[in-house]
Amino acid sequence: MVDLPILYTCAGSRGLRATWAAEEAGVEIDLRLLPFPPRFQAPEYLEINPLGTVPLLIDGAARMTESCAIAHYLATRGGYTDLAVAPGEPDYAEYCDFTYHADATITFPQTVFMRFVLFEKDKGWEEAGHAYAKWFWKRLIKLEQRLEGREFLCAGRFTVADICCSYALMLAERVGLDEGIPDSLKAYRERLMRRDGFQRARERESAGPAAI
Ligand SMILES: N[C@@H](CCC(=O)N[C@@H](CS)C(=O)NCC(=O)O)C(=O)O
Q: I need a labelling partner for 138 at 20 to 30 A (CA). Which of 102, 105, 111, 159 fits?
């Protein structure tokens, strides 16, 4: 019997990028849903991931803790598929850039907003948290401009770069950051959420408690 890659995640967390990529790529995974945040709600998880963060992918000897890297890995695990852009193809550079951009530049200010405004209200950091909300909205300019006249970010097709960036737009809606999202990006998000692969991923994650 072949061991499946094991994905530890919390429903609706950044791990949705990985669950979604697995569905789109047709890669079977052993999905293990944890309560959020695992460092407090499932402290035994720290033994397998001392960071305490989700997602974590274990595939044989490989262990990965970055949602965008996991999404790309699942899309290319058996060789390049249309879900990734291969070296030598047009837009390969842009594919790499937007896949990294998603978490490093877009989700980063969102998580500071969530910590300061939603999770640790009692610390008196709310004002700073709202400044991070504005910073997040300003940073959407790159996505907005790239999608002018395009349905998808790269190579004229749906790829992991879309999964990674659109997750940030979905998170924004859930945490009260939707007012600064341009209509064109809302429409992009709605289009991607209608995909069968997204619906299946969300359905699979619905078996666990929601993260946010
Ligand atoms: N850059 C990492 C960040 C992982 C991360 O911070 N995940 C959040 C959930 S969205 C988490 O686990 N937070 C709980 C904690 O830090 O204890 C990624 O993209 O996967």
A: 159
